[in-house]
Specification:
The structure is a single chain. 39% of the residues lie in helices and 21% in strands. With 214 residues, it is an alpha+beta fold. α2 crosses α5 and α4 packs antiparallel against α5. The longest helix has 21 residues.
Length: 214
Amino acid sequence: MKPDFEKGNGLVPAIVQDYQTKQVLMLAYVNEEAYDKMLETKETYYWSRSRQELWHKGETSGHFQYIKGMYLDCDDDTLLIYVEQIGAACHTGSYSCFFNEILPYKFNETIFHELYDVIEDRDIHPIEKSYTNYLLNEGVDKICKKVGEEASETIIAAKNDDKDELIGEISDLFYHVFVLMYNQGVTVEDIENKLAQRHQISGNKKDFHTRGDY
């Protein structure tokens, strides 16, 4: 399987993403020589349309891209490349070339959202012998009791200085707190918004408001 370089007069676009975060880093163009070099070296090579020459990403800047995966689209004319990015992908020094915001976008889908969605789905589509359905059917008193028990077990795990046990107990506590949240009509977004109100967020840095409890 190989890109159809004939379609683009010898070039195909390549979308480059961080292999861990899936953040889009840049868009570049690849000719057949660059494609072959990438397969050989597992580092990114592009064709510079402005300079009309092969371009080894990071050769002058040190900001290399180590290829972790490469995919071809259904029409064989676009590459998707997952990379380990060293330094910045953009010549401006930005990690990604896509930093000029036109329409704001916030991606909220985390494991916490997924967990909340599962709890909601169990309520809408009950499953026989589901522990979540059991808790929801028992009501707030039972749920609160379990939250208290898991909180106590979390404290004990911490005092035992057992990291694996602590991770397990915190996970159990989170789960039961999320069942309580759903039972009480509190969403993940409600918690995120409250935390955002209590924090001033600038870039990747968080500065606390002057509050007695933070």
